[in-house]
Design goal:
Elements: H1 2-7, E1 12-21, E2 31-33, E3 40-42, E4 48-55, E5 57-64, E6 71-77, E7 82-84, E8 87-89, E9 99-100, E10 108-109, E11 118-120, H2 122-125, H3 133-136, E12 143-147, E13 155-159, E14 167-171, E15 174-177, E16 194-201, H4 205-208, E17 215-221, E18 230-237, E19 241-252, E20 255-266, E21 282-294, E22 302-316, E23 332-347, E24 353-369, E25 372-390, E26 394-409, E27 426-440, E28 445-456, E29 460-474, E30 477-488, H5 492-495, E31 505-508, E32 515-530, E33 533-547, E34 550-553, E35 560-565, E36 569-583, E37 588-603, E38 609-613, E39 620-630, E40 635-644, E41 664-675, E42 678-685, E43 732-741
Parallel strand pairs: 1-7, 1-8, 14-17, 31-35
Antiparallel strand pairs: 1-4, 2-3, 2-5, 5-6, 9-10, 11-16, 12-13, 14-15, 16-17, 18-19, 18-43, 19-20, 20-21, 21-22, 22-23, 23-24, 24-25, 25-26, 26-27, 27-28, 28-29, 29-30, 30-32, 32-33, 33-36, 34-35, 36-37, 37-38, 37-39, 39-40, 40-41, 41-42, 42-43
């Protein structure tokens, strides 16, 4: 199939013309092209464009530009002929780009939103394909997927240097990935169900509550009415990774349905560094997704989606077998995950705009970490009634929300106080209410004010205010400032499950308060025209101040786990800049970087204040993307790279490994060719073959049977797989085929 794509050059023609508005004025820097192909161009300052090497035949031509309605026309291209097509575009009443929902919990245009929302479509992530959402997000500036264990490859998402628990990950606005499911849940979200990803960096707790302190990653799934009739993406790597995404849609009466299937398989045990452990976790994962939307009177909302997930994950010593699970002979970390989700929305048939959003998920984890068994189950139900009212200068959103979590595991934390042999569920209701008003002061300025009030059974009432301001002097430039108070309720029994073994008693010192933060974010977005292209600019300055940080104490009393608020504060601050260059010759370049500092200040045993740098957090992270299409053969080349500065790592006293990682970069390159509705692609990931050294301490003694030997282990090292700052996967080739039938 790929050979077919490379050789199918065929007979071609070209298309040229000018793009105008209704007043016959030239529209510069408008994007024009054939959908689902690399055949495209950008109009110059006179509105002129030209697209060459178009295959002979009938094609749809789509045109788009900021401030104008997208337009699509059909034309037949003849062999060796310059077809001429002039296009008149209609101005939009709202001068903006994409439609976003995450910033204000309702659809609004990106340029009109007071909250800065970044939008990423599958086309962006396809420049360096990944099997799931977790690894795809490494291409987003300021967002870093962090692997926390070199054996089981558990990970979380860091936004602007803030740790994973402070990031809320949602699917269609529902808090699906939380608590227990954060450990491996992100790796179970396939890219094939994604229509777009919206990222909000900074305070969002007013609308979304707990866990939205650092920001929000909202996965918008495909709409059955707009999705392709058939979609398939199949790829494989030389490491033995196989990934398949398939979806099909159909209509039945007033119902539209999309059925998707994702299967990922990696069963090849590889030990390139020779430490006796698998370099990458073995995975066998299947996910089924089914979404329905329904046609109703007055275009009222009605949708429901289902997803089932099963995963068998293993990492450990190369000679591990299934019969070694949970034993102390051969070390392995084996995790079986089963998960079911329901997500839906229903607009009530009343005059007022009332929409009820709901979700439910059950997550079952059966895992063995060496000899430590961790068996857990979690049910999370969520319901939210949202009322929207649009007035002359006000756009009001308010609502009532309820999240109900039921959690149990095999540790002492879930044992009945009366009968210690009985495991019970820990029930956590979390009701909340919020209101927000988007006020248009003038045609160029808007103010966003809002507040949320949650009630936690332990912490009581928790208020979170928010205010934002946007000034947009013209269509090309906008300035925003947002500030808010965030909070996070620590899930002590899920975040520290590895330590909750044995007969430890949980003890809370004083009235434990939720972690709180004050966040300020300044943002500028701009559009700068060039002679033969344009630049999109996005810059931010952020500052986050945390108090009441909760840290578990396992050392004061060996029979207890003591939780108390940190006597100090934490600060996270920095700047981020992204420059997107687009030129009329099809060259596109993205330069992005985030410079930050993250630390906490508390008191040591002598009462002196000390500054502690946050672990595994680089002070600088850069992203680099270059795309170029060679017209004569219609092949697109994509180069992507991520650059990281040194970061502090978890080390032992007298550790022989460096306390800081080196500067390093991961480089990828890809070539792709589109022939009608088929895209063939191939590439190399990590082509400079960068791999961290010594990722596991004492891999030859994973059960610490000889850790107390003063002769062979004078420094008292113990087995530790947490020395991580980059993936252990070296260079590998990949190849794939993507089919789209509309």
């Amino acid at each position: 199939m790929f050979l077919y794509c490379l050789t199918a050059l065929g007979q071609t023609g070209s298309l040229q013309g000018k793009i105008y508005n209704s007043s016959k004025e030239a529209i510069s820097f408008a994007a024009i092209g054939i959908p689902n192909t690399s055949l495209s161009a950008v109009s110059d300052t006179s509105g002129f464009y030209i697209i060459e090497n178009i295959p002979v035949g009938r094609h749809k031509i789509k045109t788009s530009q900021v401030g104008y309605l997208s337009k699509e026309v059909e034309i037949y291209v003849h062999e060796s002929t310059k077809e001429r097509l002039n296009i008149v575009m209609e101005e939009m009443e709202n001068s903006s780009e994409e439609v976003v929902v995450t910033g204000t919990m309702q659809e609004s245009y990106k340029m009109e939103s007071v909250t800065p929302v970044e939008i990423y479509t599958p086309k962006f992530f396809q420049k360096s394909p990944t099997p799931n959402l977790f690894y795809a997000l490494q291409m987003v500036n300021g967002v870093r997927p962090q692997l926390n264990c070199n054996v089981c490859n558990t990970g979380d998402i860091h936004i602007n240097g803030m740790e994973g628990p402070y990031t809320m990950v949602m699917i269609d606005g529902m808090p699906i990935v939380s608590s227990l499911s954060t450990v491996y849940g992100l790796m179970g979200i396939p890219n094939g169900i994604v229509e777009r990803i919206e990222v909000v960096k900074g305070p969002a707790s007013t609308l979304y509550g707990s866990e939205a302190v650092a920001g929000v990653v909202n996965v918008i799934t495909k709409n059955p009415t707009k999705a392709p009739f058939v979609y398939a993406d199949v790829n494989a790597t030389t490491w033995g990774e196989y990934n398949t995404d398939v979806s099909v849609k159909w209509k039945q009466g007033k119902a539209h349905s999309l059925l998707g299937l994702n299967y990922f398989n990696f069963k090849n045990r590889i030990d390139k560094n020779g430490d006796g452990f698998t370099d990458m976790t073995l995975q066998d994962r299947i996910s089924v997704f089914n979404k329905w939307s329904f046609d109703r009177k007055e275009n009222r909302i009605a949708s429901i989606a289902f997803r089932l997930l099963y995963e068998d994950r293993f990492g450990g010593q190369m000679n591990y077998r299934n019969e070694d699970r949970g034993r102390d002979s051969i070390y392995g970390e084996s995790i079986y995950t089963q998960r079911a989700e329901v997500i839906g929305a229903y607009q009530l048939p009343v005059k007022q705009n009332l929409v009820f959003y709901y979700s439910y998920n059950v997550h079952d984890q059966n895992s063995a970490y060496g000899t430590t068994w961790y068996l857990a189950r979690q049910h999370v139900g969520f319901g939210q009634m949202v009322w929207t009212k649009i007035l002359k200068k006000h756009n009001i959103v308010s609502g009532l929300a309820m999240r109900y979590t039921a959690y149990t595991d095999n540790t002492f934390a879930s044992r009945d106080k009366i009968d210690s042999t009985k495991q019970i569920y820990t029930l956590t209701p979390l009701p909340g209410a919020f209101v927000q008003d988007d006020i248009s002061i003038t045609a160029k300025s808007k103010v966003l004010v809002g507040s949320r009030l949650d009630f936690h059974p332990i912490h009581g009432f928790i208020p979170t205010p928010r205010i934002g301001y946007k000034y947009q002097p013209n269509k090309s430039h906008s300035f925003r400032i947002n500030t808010g108070n965030g909070f996070r309720v620590v899930n002590v029994f899920t975040e520290d499950h590895a330590a909750l073994t044995g007969a430890r008693k949980v003890e809370f010192v004083g009235a434990i308060k939720p972690e709180k933060s004050w966040n300020v974010n300044l943002n500028y977005t701009g559009f700068i025209p060039l002679r033969k292209g344009f630049i999109n600019v996005d810059g931010s300055v952020f500052y986050n101040y945390f108090t009441n940080k909760i840290i578990p104490d396992y050392l004061t009393d060996p029979n207890k786990v003591i939780y108390k608020n940190l006597d100090g504060h934490a600060i996270n601050k920095g700047v981020a800049l992204s420059l997107d260059f687009s030129f009329t010759n099809s060259l596109k370049v993205q330069l992005a970087g985030t410079l930050l500092e993250a630390f906490k200040k508390d008191k040591d045993s002598t009462g002196q204040e000390r500054k502690v740098t946050q672990l595994q957090t680089p002070n600088f992270q850069g992203n680099f993307v270059v795309s170029y299409t060679i017209p004569i053969i219609n092949v697109m080349f994509d180069y992507t790279s991520q650059l990281y500065s040194p970061m502090k790592l978890p080390v032992y006293p007298n550790d022989y490994r460096p306390e800081f990682s080196p500067w390093f970069a991961l480089h990828n390159i890809q070539a792709s060719k589109t022939v009608k509705n088929v895209v063939c692609y191939m590439g190399i990931k990590n082509f400079l073959n960068f791999v961290p050294a010594n990722p596991i301490l004492r891999p030859f003694d994973p059960f610490d049977k000889k850790a107390n030997d003063p002769v062979n282990n004078p420094n008292r090292y113990t087995f530790d797989p947490t020395y991580n700052y980059a993936p252990l996967q070296g260079m590998r080739f990949y190849m794939g085929v993507r089919l789209t039938i509309r």
